[in-house]
Amino acid sequence: MMSITRYPAASRRAAIGIVHLGLGAFHRAHQAVYLERYRQRSGDDAWGICSANLRGNVALVDGLAAAGHRYHVAEYTDSENVALREIGTIEETLFSGRDAGGQWGRDLDALLERMAASETRIVTLTVTEKGYFLNPASGELLSDDPMIAADIAEPSRPRTAPGMLVEALARRRAQGVAPFTVLCCDNMPDNGRRTRNAVVQLAARRDPELATWIEREVAFPCSMVDRIVPAMTERDAARLAELGVADAQAVACEAFSQWVVEDSFPQGRPYWEADGVEMVDDVAPFETMKLRLLNGSHSLLAYLGALDGIATVAEAVARDDLRALLHHYMHREAAPTLSLPAGTDLSGYAASLLARFGNDSLQHRLQQIAMDGSQKLPQRWLQGAVAQRQAGAALPATALGLAAWIRYAAGHDLRGNRVEVSDPLAARFADCHARHGGDPAALIDAFMAMDDVVPPALAADAAFAADVLDAYRRLTDDGLAAALARVTHA
Ligand code: NAI
Ligand code: CS2
């Protein structure tokens, strides 16, 4: 019998003090939930959210508006216990992307006006790692990208998140309005600094004095965000309907949630500590631990599991050999690269991750996690691997993960069934496989030479590249179980 705990939304509406870019599943299940809980506890109605999509999913924008900007979040502790939260803290939804007719910027004016308004004191973002248009390895702005090039050519009609931030800050500066604080909530290391990097580089292409002003006056605190929020499936929606939840904008997620935020908000912020948000001076230890242990493990499961036809995270960690690989990776290959937050019980944290991954009430598809690997793997595996290799460590799990990512990029699993390769560099991957698919050594060399993904020190490490090639051959010739055994029984 399912145990259901229901939490209705606050009945009052709130003034908009926050604009969010990236109205996705995670925003609805994480930041918006914290803010709903904050305002119900504090009675402070100054921090309502205007949430916008800059690309895709206009149906969600309009669906939320039609539903009076209320939706449900189903927080599953396990398959028998769920908390159903009604969220009402999103006060407005806007769309500035390209519509079905190819027109851009339906609500662009309204969005920029909202961002330039003095009442808006924080802008948060979940636009995915690729939404900042940064070279994943160097952090340089991808100024040749057509979207960024368009923002450089027409800065007052921005299409990208960095472009939106630059135009809104330019308007505030011109009007003598203090800047908002920019709080990135994407899975990137040093995400505040990376966001600043994108914004300042783009601003400099428009007006060097504006770029200098942004560098001097605008706060870009870092944050570590953690809550597993899979893309909704039909099965998720059917289960919610059984609980009496019929809104198409509902999301399902785990009960666990964490938000660690650098406390740098010159224009003020909600006092959200009472709702579990950890305000700290330095997010880096929390961020690196989470990105390498949780997300690094997720990406290992994604490529290795999907190649063997496994569909979800829970199904993958039900396999003893994949659990053994994660244990090896977390303790032997990732943990030595970490400066842990004070008081962290690493074994306990690693065990909690395996328990969270095993939450069978979530349909967390491996192929969703496999998306955008070129934007994710540098911070999840590769930056730690550089440090480990410099210390002379063997990294068989990381080598196997890279081999699996390269093989996954071929677009079919080990049995020849199609897998979804969704990545800004997908065309390049396909070209590499077309040229070198029959020559594994050349294929590995070609992927390892991608200096916008693989750090040069790792690309130059011939012994490591040989390990990747050996893992690739074992995976493709002998299968997943043999490849895993090579790591965990070595
Ligand atoms: P989603 O697919 O539901 O939403 C993605 C959002 O990003 C959409 O609003 C989309 O319009 C926007 N977007 C994508 N590419 C963009 C671009 N180039 N420019 C501007 N906007 C763009 O995905 P979800 O679950 O909301 O995740 C979004 C991000 O949140 C992740 O990439 C990650 O950085 C972060 N996150 C997600 C977690 C999860 O478990 N889903 C957990 C922790 C962090
Ligand atoms: C996942 C993350 O899709 C992915 O890349 O690894 O979204 C993961 O669910 C979150 O970071 C958990 O906090």
UniProtKB/TrEMBL annotation:
It comes from Franzmannia qiaohouensis. Residues 282-473 form the Mannitol dehydrogenase C-terminal domain. Transmembrane segments: none annotated. It holds the Pfam family Mannitol_dh_C. PROSITE patterns: MANNITOL_DHGENASE (PS00974). Keywords: NAD, Oxidoreductase. This is Mannitol dehydrogenase family protein. It comes from the Bacteria. Residues 17-273 form the Mannitol dehydrogenase N-terminal domain.
